[in-house]
Amino acid sequence: MIELGGGWDELLKPLFDDERYKKIREFLKYEYSHYIVYPDMYDLYNCFRYTPLKNLKAVILGQDPYHEPGQAHGLCFSVKPGVPLPPSLKNIFKEIESDLNIREPDCGDLTGWAREGVLLLNTTLTVREHRANSHANCGWAWFTDSVIKLISENTEHTVFILWGGNARSKKPLIDKGRHLVLESAHPSPLSAYNGFFGSRPFSKCNSYLISCGKQPIDWDLNNKHQNN
């Protein structure tokens, strides 16, 4: 029995009870017992555990977890302390510096954002070591699409930040009448100069939250890592 806390258990119960989720579980039992899979199974749902539903302000969608040792820990784009910054994350920090004048942190652990109310959700939650997208067809798309839809239907004034084609394809799942959707190119080195740099998603997100009477997100990780 999965226990997430923070209001997620009630919201996601229909998904965990669904036959399609049971098939994902069977697939994962096999994969974790036969291969090295990331993230660690105990980190799999960290994005929900660190961000209670009532505190939710924004959703950042990633694709699938990092597939090299020591990186993935259940939050999209985030890496564990001490791990070199992946190129996409480095570009995210560059855009924050340009947008909000916040200097690049020396650590790529985004847990501080999660605790600020940012759900860091990958659209595929697991991956086999060294094999990007290896779990893309195991059923996670159904699960995470359903999560996005449930968030859209059960929260108010949430900011959905969609970077790149995979994330932007989820736009039809979001009620744009009650939420803000911010979309741009992906922050990867291949596409960051095609519309990610200069898109200012962090200040736009905060302006919207303030206009809706919500507290803005503190995107500065420099004073958060000591507390994680």
What does this structure look like?
By secondary structure, this protein is an alpha/beta fold. The protein has helices at 8-16, 19-34, 46-50, 87-100, 111-115, 140-154, 164-168, 201-211, and strands spanning 37-38, 58-62, 118-122, 127-128, 159-163, 180-184. The chain has eight helices and six strands. The strands form two sheets. The protein has a four-stranded parallel β-sheet with strand order 3-2-5-6. Strands 1-4 form a two-stranded antiparallel sheet. Strand 5 (159-163), helix 7 (164-168) and strand 6 form a beta-alpha-beta unit. The longest helix is centred in the first third of the chain and has 16 residues, at 19-34. The protein is globular and about 45 Å long. The model has no long low-confidence stretch (mean pLDDT 95).
Distance between the termini: 26 Å
Count of DSSP helices?
A: 8
The share of residues in helices is 25-40%
Report the biggest beta sheet as strand number plus sense, adding barrel if it closes: 4 strands, parallel
Report the count of strand segments.
Answer: 6
Q: Stretches where pLDDT falls below 50 for ≥5 residues?
A: none
Task: For the largest sheet, list the strands in their spatial order.
Answer: 3-2-5-6
Mean pLDDT: 95
Order of helices and strands: HHEHEHHEEHEHEH
* Structural class by secondary-structure content: alpha/beta
Q: What is Rg?
A: 17 Å
Which of globular, elongated, flat, extended, rod-shaped describes the shape? globular
Task: Estimate what percentage of residues fall within beta strands.
Answer: 5-15%
